[in-house]
């Protein structure tokens, strides 16, 4: 298995924490060069990726550092529960900006590199809430539905250039994003553990392993696809 991403040059955002950090580590383990970005943590490029030029600057820095770019995995994201009543515009728009608009900008800026490569890879991170909705998740679920739709359209547009675009849809994963909710509400953690046929929360590595597969030559004919990686939760939805 080791070395299957040899020669690939990838950007991973959100790599300062959780799923993004695990993805960066896994891609490196498989032989890829990885250029990491986040607003915090130990990464190659530190920036708030909602800045209008941040993604163009990131793509340029990554391509310069690695001598090219053929793989993009935007993992940066935010989430919080907000009931609809009293849900202010600013937070709703912020969720769309981080989870959707920054992904759009990164993919747009990377597109010339991915087309030139001839076998480019885009793996976005949606959520099982790219497929269903839930109370208090109107902004998050809207952004994650949108990122899945965006990914499908990118797959259609860039497929003729040998580029695949797929969307990994994690279920409940134990990361710093979910830790406060699981710590404050142990019953919420138990709920998700029991809801999964595999009877546990996911780990960042559960997601990273699937991302690595989708970046590899083995996944060359998989595109426009949203893939639940959720311990089977969606089978019961
Ligand atoms: P996390 O909070 O551990 O990591 C997210 C990272 O994104 C953080 O390091 C954060 O600094 C970075 N980030 C946020 N806003 C940014 C910005 N404006 N600019 C640059 N970096 C920014 O969370 P995670 O659980 O690892 O989440 C990673 C991705 O997986 C997110 O897109 C999230 O929506 C998705 N996801 C997570 C779960 C879960 O259960 N943890 C489930 C489904 C989907």
Summarize this structure as a short list of keywords or feature phrases.
alpha/beta, Rossmann fold, seven-stranded parallel beta sheet
Question: What does this protein look like?
Answer:
- The chain is α/β, with parallel strands linked by helices and 237 residues long.
- It has a single domain (9-230), classed as Rossmann fold.
- The protein contains seven helices and seven strands; from the N terminus they run βαββαβαβαβαααβ.
- Strand 5 (121-125), helix 4 and strand 6 (164-170) form a beta-alpha-beta unit.
- The longest helix has 29 residues, at 89-117.
- The structure holds nicotinamide-adenine-dinucleotide.
- The site of nicotinamide-adenine-dinucleotide (NAD) has 28 residues, from helix 1.
- Residues 14, 16-20, 38-41, 48-50, 75-79, 98, 125, 127, 170, 172-173, 175-178 line the site of nicotinamide-adenine-dinucleotide.
What topology does this entry show?
Blueprint: E1 9-13, H1 18-29, E2 33-38, E3 45-46, H2 54-66, E4 71-74, H3 89-117, E5 121-125, H4 138-158, E6 164-170, H5 179-184, H6 186-195, H7 204-215, E7 226-229
Parallel strand pairs: 1-2, 1-4, 2-3, 4-5, 5-6, 6-7
Keywords: Oxidoreductase
Family: Belongs to the short-chain dehydrogenases/reductases (SDR) family.
InterPro entries: NAD(P)-bd_dom_sf, Sc_DH/Rdtase_CS, SDR_fam
Judging from the principal axes of the Cα atoms, what is the shape?
Answer: globular
**Average pLDDT, to the nearest integer?**
97
**CATH homologous superfamily identity:** NAD(P)-binding Rossmann-like Domain
For the largest beta-sheet, the strand count, sense and barrel status come to: 7 strands, parallel
Given this structure, which CATH class is correct?
Alpha Beta
Rg, Å, rounded: 17 Å
Strand content: 5-15%
CATH third-tier fold name: Rossmann fold
Cα-to-Cα separation, first versus last residue:
34 Å
**Which second-level CATH architecture applies?**
3-Layer(aba) Sandwich
| Main structural class | alpha/beta
Task: Please bin the fraction of helical residues.
Answer: 40-55%
Number of strand segments: 7
Protein name: SDR family oxidoreductase
Organism: Novosphingobium album (ex Hu et al. 2023)
Pfam family, one: adh_short_C2
Keywords: Oxidoreductase
């Amino acid at each position: 298995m080791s070395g299957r991403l040899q020669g690939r040059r990838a950007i991973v955002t959100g790599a300062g924490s959780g799923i993004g950090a695990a993805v960066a580590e896994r891609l490196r383990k498989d032989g890829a060069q990885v250029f990491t970005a986040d607003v915090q943590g130990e990464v190659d490029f530190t920036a708030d990726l909602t800045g209008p030029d941040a993604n163009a600057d990131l793509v340029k820095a990554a391509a310069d550092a690695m001598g090219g770019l053929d793989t993009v995995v935007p993992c940066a994201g935010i989430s919080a529960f907000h009931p609809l009543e009293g849900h202010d515009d600013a937070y709703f728009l912020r969720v769309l900006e981080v989870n959707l608009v920054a992904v759009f900008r990164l993919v747009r800026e990377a597109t010339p590199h991915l087309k030139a490569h001839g076998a480019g890879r885009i793996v976005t991170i949606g959520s099982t809430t790219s497929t269903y909705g839930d109370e208090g998740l109107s902004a998050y679920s809207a952004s994650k539905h949108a990122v899945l739709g965006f990914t499908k359209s990118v797959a259609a547009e860039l497929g003729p250039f040998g580029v695949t675009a797929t969307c990994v849809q994690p279920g409940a994963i134990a990361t710093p994003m979910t830790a406060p909710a699981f710590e404050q509400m142990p019953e919420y953690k138990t709920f998700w553990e029991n809801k999964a046929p595999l009877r546990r929360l996911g780990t960042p590595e559960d997601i990273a392993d699937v991302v690595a597969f989708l970046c590899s030559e083995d996944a060359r004919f998989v595109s426009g696809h949203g893939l639940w990686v959720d311990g089977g939760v969606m089978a019961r939805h």
